[in-house]
Specification:
Length: 50
């Protein structure tokens, strides 16, 4: 195996995401924000109407 750097075309997309730690952190925050807002809306919509 060679230690030479490879062009971006040879690196898989998920590996490029994992190499960018701040982008990965932002993606995690957005995911959890959407999940909790979605869960809250689902909980509100499941309440009985009086």
């Amino acid at each position: 195996m060679s230690n030479r750097t490879t062009p971006d075309g040879d690196i898989p997309a998920m590996q490029r995401l994992y190499n960018r730690i701040w982008l990965l952190a932002a993606a995690a925050i957005v995911f959890f924000l959407v999940a909790y807002v979605g869960w809250g809306l689902l909980d509100l919509l499941s309440l009985p109407v009086r």
